[in-house]
């Protein structure tokens, strides 16, 4: 493999960015649709937003940020050829993902018990769809983390492992960034 | 090696896209799609007003849909070169692609049932119209399986000269994700997730045909490379 200048290094393999950037375009579209329909009925969106639990949203933000921290250090560990440490850090990130899901379970339960369903009004339609599609991405991301964890069992070719781990880590960071945007738009925007 | 038949299969994908769009757009006028909020009387009058034109357009669309099969087989032939044996992903693509054809043919027949007796009770025509649109746009499952099997095969290609570039694998994953919102049309009659909405119709529709064109370009390259190598 040709030597790569550090300042030109793209994390992971280039192809994975086709998916990541493509996926971010999709979310940009979803967020755009949300803002467009919100502008059409600001009072409904603002009043329905009050019934969201910002604390649970903030807790999930914290969980994902922590998981990203673990993933960053996991990549560093792979660079240092410390596969066991990397596996532990990826498992910790996976645990944060699980925590995110548990919080979402309680959050959805709270909403449904209060009678807010996907067909209640436009705000809740977007709330369930945006968070649901994001949750799907969290699930896929956890699958990626589990795959990397299993893959790192093989320590023969750590340079090859690094490319895969960087690709997966980039996807996980995207899931994190999208949640931060989603949290700001759906839970906080006044 | 004679790759002439394979090249015909590759081009059939373009023929499908052209004839299907022709039937869908200028002939049946299903673009933009009739709104799910239309009353039974409105739906019935739509079928009554252009009965023969709709019947003819649907016939073209139904006929064009068969051309998906050779295109699916052309993808399978190139995937087999990536995968070798056992060709699990190749079979998966072949079966899911073949099954996906039904979600083009059967909706055409359901809409044709609606256009068959436009004088019957409007509620029944509306029912057939609903069934056609929902069957056309809701079942994303086979397409996701198809796109993922293609993507995984591309990423797993261990040929010294890979058949397809790796980014095409990730592109296939992305396309799969974009089909998912179609499934949500079951909840909505208005907005972006209704069957005439941005995310349940326009995005999947545009992406589907973009995918055809992108896959066509690389399949054609692949077949040319294959015949050059064996010549």
Task: Report on this structure.
The complex is a heterodimer of chains A (190) and B (231). With 190 residues, chain A is an all-alpha fold. Helices cover 81% and strands 0% of the residues of chain A. The longest helix of chain A is centred in the middle third of the chain and has 31 residues, at 83-113. Chain B has 231 residues and is an all-alpha fold. Chain B is built from ten helices and no strands. The N and C termini of chain B lie close together (7 Å). Classes of the chains: A mainly alpha (190), B mainly alpha (231). Chains A and B meet through helix 1 and helix 5 of A and helix 9 and helix 10 of B.
Structural class of chain B: mainly alpha
The fraction of residues assigned to DSSP E strands of chain B is under 5%
**Major sheet details of chain A:** none
What is the first-to-last residue Cα distance of chain B? 7 Å
Tell me how many strands of chain B there are. 0
Which residue ranges of chain A are poorly predicted, with pLDDT under 50 across at least 5 consecutive positions? none
Oligomer: heterodimer
Percent of residues in helices of chain B comes to: over 70%
Low-pLDDT stretches of chain B: none
- Specify the structural class of chain A: mainly alpha
By DSSP, the count of extended strands of chain A is: 0
What shape does the CA trace of chain A take?
elongated
Count of DSSP-assigned helices of chain B: 10
Shape of chain B: elongated
Average pLDDT number of chain B: 94
Summed over residues and divided by their number, the pLDDT of chain A gives a mean of: 92
Largest sheet of chain B: none
Radius of gyration of chain B: 19 Å
Count of alpha and pi helical runs of chain A: 6
Report the portion of residues of chain A in β strands.
under 5%
Task: Pick out its properties.
heterodimer; A: 190 residues; mainly alpha; 6 helices; B: 231 residues; 10 helices; 74% helix
Can you describe this structure in just a few lines?
Chain A is mainly α.
């Amino acid at each position: 493999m040709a030597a790569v200048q550090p300042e030109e290094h793209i994390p992971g393999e280039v192809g994975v960015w086709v998916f990541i950037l493509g996926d971010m375009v999709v979310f940009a579209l979803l967020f755009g649709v949300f803002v467009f329909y919100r502008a059409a009925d600001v009072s409904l969106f603002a009043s329905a937003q009050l019934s969201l639990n910002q604390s649970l949203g903030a807790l999930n933000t914290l969980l994902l940020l922590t998981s990203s921290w673990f993933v960053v250090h996991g990549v560093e560990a792979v660079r240092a050829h410390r596969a066991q440490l990397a596996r532990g850090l990826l498992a910790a990130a996976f645990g944060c993902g699980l925590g995110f899901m548990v919080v979402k379970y309680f959050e959805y339960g709270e909403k449904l018990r209060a009678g807010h369903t996907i067909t209640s009004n436009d705000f809740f339609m977007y709330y369930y769809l945006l968070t649901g599609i994001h949750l799907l991405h969290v699930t896929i991301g956890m699958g990626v983390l589990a795959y990397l964890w299993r893959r790192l069992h093989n320590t023969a070719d750590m340079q090859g492992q690094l490319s895969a781990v960087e690709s997966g880590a980039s996807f996980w960071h995207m899931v994190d960034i999208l949640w931060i945007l989603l949290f700001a738009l759906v839970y906080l925007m006044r | 090696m004679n790759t002439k038949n394979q090249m015909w299969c590759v081009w059939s994908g373009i023929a499908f896209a052209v004839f299907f769009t022709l039937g869908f757009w200028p002939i049946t006028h299903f673009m933009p799609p009739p709104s799910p909020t239309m009353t039974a009387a409105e739906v019935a009058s739509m079928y009554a007003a252009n009965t023969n034109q709709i019947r003819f357009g649907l016939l073209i669309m139904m006929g064009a849909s068969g051309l998906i099969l050779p295109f699916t087989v052309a993808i399978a032939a190139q995937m087999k070169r990536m995968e070798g044996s056992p060709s699990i992903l190749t079979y998966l693509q072949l079966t899911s692609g073949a099954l996906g054809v039904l979600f083009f043919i059967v909706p055409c027949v359901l809409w044709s049932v609606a256009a068959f007796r436009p004088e019957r009770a409007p509620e029944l025509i509306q029912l057939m119209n609903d069934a056609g649109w929902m069957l056309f746009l809701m079942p994303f499952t086979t397409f996701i399986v198809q796109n993922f099997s293609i993507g995984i095969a591309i990423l797993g290609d261990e040929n010294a000269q890979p058949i397809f570039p790796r980014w095409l694998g990730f592109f296939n994953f992305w396309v799969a994700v974009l089909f998912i919102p179609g499934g949500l049309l079951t909840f909505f009659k208005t907005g972006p997730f209704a069957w005439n909405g941005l995310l349940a119709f326009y995005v999947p529709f545009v992406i589907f045909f973009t995918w055809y064109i992108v896959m066509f370009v690389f399949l054609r390259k692949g077949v040319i490379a294959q015949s050059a190598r064996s010549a």
